[in-house]
Amino acid sequence: MSGIVIKRMDRMTPKHVNKHEKYEHYRYDVTDNKQKYNVDKPIDGNQTVTAFYVLPPGMSSYPFHYHTVNEEVFYIISGSGVLETFSGEQTVTAGDVIVFPAGKEGAHKLTNDSETENLVYLDVDTNKTPEIAYYPHSNKVGIRACGVRQNFDLGTTVGYYEGE
Q1: Can you give the pLDDT at residue 37?
Q2: How far, in whole angstroms, is CA 137 from its chain's centroid?
Q3: Domain assignment of residue 145, yes or no
Q4: Pick from 155, 133, 108: nearest CA to 141
């Protein structure tokens, strides 16, 4: 980051993401989100990435997952939701701060449980690369490093020397 950033959500234009029937959100990037994983060296890019998220009723932002390197912090601004973890589900509401450590103990999925009200939260992530995200429900991994941003099914494996 080249300097101090001061932004207001009500003066920003969101990016609408709706690529699956269960997942939809509006993301208001406070810092340059493109730098999150599109770096050539681990020391490049922002050390943190910050965005506001708005989840419409009944929607989740991302599938159940955890990061192997990066940590996340959510601050619930308004609305309520259900937070899924390996320990079960719990309700989160305005004023709650949720800290997700890297690793399996930080696995999470946030879903808006309202039928009428949006869930609004601030998301602050560390920005270390390379990063692997694991998706336990679908047995996938996501590789994020040096411009690579791809997901792989762990059910299809190959030997170390296969194809060499």
Answers
A1: 56
A2: 16
A3: no
A4: 133
Residue 91 is assigned to a structural domain of this protein: yes
> Which structure tokens are listed for 87?
């320990």
Which pLDDT score is estimated for 44? Answer: 64
Domain region containing 112: 13-128
Query: In this structure, what CATH number is given to the domain that contains residue 113?
Result: 2.60.120.10
Local structure of 109: helix, strand or coil? strand
Count of domains in the chain? 1
Q: Among residues 125, 126, 58, 119, which one has the least CA distance to residue 92?
A: 119
pTM assigned to the model: 0.90
Q: Is the C-alpha dihedral spanning 70, 76, 77, 79 positive or negative? A: positive
Residue 33 is predicted with a pLDDT of: 64
Q: CA dihedral in degrees (49, 52, 56, 59; nearest 10)? A: 20
Question: Is residue 73 situated within a structural domain?
Answer: yes
Neighbours of 61 (CB within 10 A): 22
* Mean pLDDT, 10 residues at a time, the chain of 164 residues: 88 93 95 64 72 97 96 98 98 98 98 97 90 95 84 88 89
Residue 142 domain-assigned (yes or no) = no
